[in-house]
């Protein structure tokens, strides 16, 4: 969409997820022209069966710089539980999955659980998204303009392209090439799905912590996470939706286990859940037969290195720039900083007179340094917490959920 103000730059945003929409809001607030594209259709964008929550903590400081004041005031609408108090939790409790004993609390800066869907819908207000636009390729022509070609045969041209299109970014492929853009597999797999329980069990789960609780089983290092996903009526626990996540190192799975089918996954999930202390045992065993549990692999961008941004014309943001494993809760927070920093970079061009090449290169350098640091620390967290022998040497013990600093690379 075109906005009022100077027309010196027109930005193409690929991806209407959290980072793409916050970037759009920031550009709109700065009167910088943009168009935002989303690969999903108007229908699938709202009806995706995969829904999950995210942990917001230090990244919240970057939201107000991009959102208009009226949306900042309504940000509580994106919370998994909009009725929660600001001091509902100080961190994530980690328990022994076999005994239920509290091991430690992973500290965080005013943590909240936010709904991916609610946050996208809030950030999307006032933004004209072009749906059904799957990128085929992107390039910079001899005229210095960025051209994006979509699978439906349409094209778009602008001055700057920012790929906010997630971990499997097509824009990243166009910038660094297909091979260099590939994700690196981590020997960790996970179940991640939403579920509702009866009122008694739902209340019992939240008694441990208002937002989330997790546990590590000492016998095989499996992590079992429970967090609140949606609270339509605080007085009716049976209406609450929880996020269930169970993850493990691949070689801890017995060879006879079949994870290729929904039936096999549910059987494995229930068998593992039966070994747990409460409330994880009851939560796992309460999942009904026929529930279709997705299976995900842990990945990150292990090939990340300085990319050619075509004189500032093509860059990345959010998971497209630094896809990471989820066990330190850093993906959303880094994406929010990316969006805010990208908007600030373009303001230096449009208002400050800095060259596009310099402004975007400075943005890229910071994103790459911060992103590769966090990808490495999150990877260490993922590998260490799934092994009882290394659990207490993991980053969560030393630095919690706080934003990583350079010195943390050696300490974590």
Automatic annotation (TrEMBL):
Gene Ontology terms, MF aspect: FAD binding; monooxygenase activity
Gene3D superfamilies reported in the protein's UniProt record: FAD/NAD(P)-binding domain
TM region(s), chain numbering: none
Domain FAD-binding: 9-370
Cofactor field: FAD
Domain of life: Eukaryota
Signal peptide extent: none
Keywords: FAD, Flavoprotein, Monooxygenase, Oxidoreductase
Protein name (database record): FAD/NAD(P)-binding domain-containing protein
């Amino acid at each position: 969409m075109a906005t009022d103000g100077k027309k010196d730059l027109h930005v193409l945003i690929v991806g209407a997820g959290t980072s793409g929409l916050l970037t759009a809001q920031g550009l709109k607030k700065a009167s910088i022209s943009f168009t935002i594209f989303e690969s999903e259709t108007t229908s699938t964008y709202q009806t995706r069966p995969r829904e999950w929550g995210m942990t917001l903590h230090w990244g919240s400081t970057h939201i107000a710089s991009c959102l208009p004041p009226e949306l900042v005031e309504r940000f509580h609408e994106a919370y998994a539980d909009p009725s929660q108090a600001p001091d509902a939790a100080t961190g994530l409790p980690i328990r022994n999955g076999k005994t239920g004993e509290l091991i430690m609390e992973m500290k965080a800066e005013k943590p909240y659980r936010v709904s991916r869907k609610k946050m996208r819908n809030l950030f999307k207000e006032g933004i004209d998204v072009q749906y059904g636009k799957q990128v085929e390729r992107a390039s910079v022509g001899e005229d210095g303009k960025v051209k994006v070609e979509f699978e439906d045969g349409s094209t778009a041209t602008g001055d700057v392209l920012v790929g906010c299109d997630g971990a499997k970014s097509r824009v990243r492929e166009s910038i660094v090439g297909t091979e260099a853009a590939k994700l690196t597999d981590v020997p960790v797999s996970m179940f991640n799905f939403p579920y509702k329980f009866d009122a008694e069990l739902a209340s019992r789960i939240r008694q441990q912590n208002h937002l989330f609780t997790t546990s590590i089983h000492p016998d095989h290092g499996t992590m079992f996470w429970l967090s609140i996903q949606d609270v339509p009526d605080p007085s009716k626990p049976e209406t609450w939706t929880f996020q269930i996540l169970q993850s493990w190192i691949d070689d801890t799975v017995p060879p006879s286990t079949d994870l290729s089918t929904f039936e096999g996954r549910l059987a494995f999930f229930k068998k593992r859940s039966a070994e747990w202390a409460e409330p994880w045992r009851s939560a796992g065993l309460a999942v009904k037969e026929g529930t279709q549990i997705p299976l995900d692999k842990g990945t990150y961008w292990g090939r990340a290195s300085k990319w050619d941004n075509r004189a500032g014309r093509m860059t990345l943001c959010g998971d497209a720039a630094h896809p990471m494993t989820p066990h330190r809760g850093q993906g959303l927070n880094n994406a929010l900083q990316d969006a805010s920093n990208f908007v600030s970079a373009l303001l230096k061009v449009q208002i400050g007179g800095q060259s596009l090449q310099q402004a975007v290169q400075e943005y890229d350098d910071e994103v790459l340094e911060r992103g590769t640091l966090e990808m490495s620390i999150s990877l260490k967290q993922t590998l260490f917490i799934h092994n009882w022998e290394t659990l207490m040497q993991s980053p969560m013990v030393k630095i919690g959920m706080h934003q990583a600093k350079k010195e943390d690379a050696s300490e974590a």
